[in-house]
Amino acid sequence: MSTPQTVILGAIAGLTIFIGLPLGRVRASRPQAKAFLNAVSAGILVFLLFDILAHATEPVEQAMEQAKEGASSWSHAGAMGLVYVVGLGVGLLGLLYLGRFRLWSRAARPGGIGPGAMAATELVEPSLQETALRTGMSIATGIGLHNFSEGLAIGQAARGGAMSLAGLLIVGFGLHNMTEGFGIVGPLAAAGVRPSWGWLGVAGLIGGGPTFAGTLLGTTYQSELVFVGFLTLAAGAILYVIGEVLPVGRRLSWELTLWGLLTGFVLGLATDLILALAGG
């Protein structure tokens, strides 16, 4: 398998996210169904969070062990730890402050508030539809950061001559992305929001497109710092979104939310086990 073929297949692995996205067009009218679909999405995200942090922590631990044994410098280990913490913080708090900035901008626009309403420097409460769409796009952003790191893994395997490993990673990550597509649209189903095909297309490109970019970069450049940085950015963003999604399910039905969490987690685990059994 040549490098161009690896890059093309890496792009396909990322675009399998579009398989799950059309489920966002399915209408769920019953609160129980909304709660379950919302929780399945959260369960997938919880599994991704565990998976991402496991892969991000391993290089940091290895750097510290190598520094302890004298095989590497403590400055390198410190840099890895710093990137880990900063990436997690930026991913988690970045979405919070970005959301606030959007609300401030909307409040300050001419016509953004009505006569006699609050001052333009105050926050405007977003509509349910706007909140759901923003949450879905935030999930797509977190998954996109995660998929960029997956693309790096594919590209670096190919760059190191491990083409069979690169092929296994492509298949495994492609399966993963099928479930991640539903992870993006689950909160929309819970809110009763039916996104347009254009919105789904943009969300798919944000969530799946970075796999292609990561594969392309990984075939020419290798850096553990970049790998850890993007993984922790993704972890922080996904942690933020989980905090946004779960309270919605609790209001609808906590019992079904717990069942949905379990279902989503098992779905994510199943795709990961398929990759492990294949030898990836």
Question: What's the short story on this structure?
Answer:
It is globular and about 60 Å long. With 280 residues, it is mainly alpha-helical.
**Count of DSSP H/I helices:** 8
The amount of beta strand, in percent, is under 5%
Overall, the morphology is globular
Which oligomeric state applies? single chain
Radius of gyration: 20 Å
CA distance, first residue to last residue: 17 Å
N to C succession of SSEs: HHHHHHHH
The share of residues in helices is over 70%
- Tell me about the biggest sheet? none
The averaged pLDDT comes out at: 79
Please write out the topology.
Layout lengths: L2 H13 L15 H39 L4 H35 L19 H32 L3 H29 L5 H22 L5 H29 L1 H24 L3
Helix pairs in contact: 1-4, 1-5, 1-6, 2-3, 2-5, 2-7, 2-8, 3-7, 4-5, 4-6, 4-7, 5-6, 5-8, 7-8
Q: What does it look like?
A:
This protein has 280 residues and is mainly alpha-helical. 80% of the residues lie in helices and 0% in strands. The radius of gyration is 20 Å and the shape is globular. The model is unreliable at 113-125 (pLDDT under 50).
